[in-house]
Amino acid sequence: xxxxxxxxxxxxxxxxxxxxxxxxxxxxxxxxxxxxxxxxxxxxxxxxxxxxxxxxxxxxxxxxxxxxxxxxxxxxxxxxxxxxxxxxxxxxxxxxxxxxxxxxxxxxxxxxxxxxxxxxxxxxxxxxxxxxxxxxxxxxxxxxxxxxxxxxxxxxxxxxxxxxxxxxxxxxxxxxxxxxxxxxxxxxxxxxxxxxxxxxxxxxxxxx
Length: 208
Ligand code: GRF
Prior knowledge:
By secondary structure, the protein is an alpha/beta fold. Helices cover 37% and strands 25% of the residues. The protein is built from six helices and nine strands; from the N terminus they run βαβαβαβαβαββαββ. The strands form two sheets. A seven-stranded mixed sheet has the order 3-2-1-4-5-6-7, with helices on one face. The protein has a two-stranded antiparallel ribbon with strand order 8-9. The structure holds 5-O-phosphono-beta-D-ribofuranosylamine (GRF).
């Protein structure tokens, strides 16, 4: 059984897709052991609670400096000792010590086709605003392992989504979620839980 911790900052629709995937059997051999949020008001925490999953609040604001938060956050994660950490819309930079401790055991969903529209400053709605500004005809989502870089770890899965002519950033965000994110992230977790994903020379190999 793959024991996962899901980290979320906001609405938690990707968390919901994981919960639904487990409930309906699209994700197998997987158990969410905790949901961590940096935001007390995150709807994600009530979604977790509704499923009887412990919700943990870990906000940098509650620590005297970033180093103290990083120590506490990494310490909490070591205590939980998950097999996989899933960043599902988590807006806090993962401490270097956590990346080292959980090498190839942290995944993230990014709402664009990496290496486009990613890196510092590309988060949330901004990603879609930039894609519309550039006039791309295709965007999408990417699930990748997290390394010490920003959106630079090995790519697990990607899915393209069409941009429509009069899209607003909100409309595009919604389409990318519906057509890509909510499918890709549960699929990646199921693949990892069932031993279909390996990282070889910095690239992901998937077996059927
Ligand atoms: C998603 O677009 C995800 O790709 C990005 O943040 C957003 C989170 O949405 N990293 P939600 O909280 O899962 O609804």
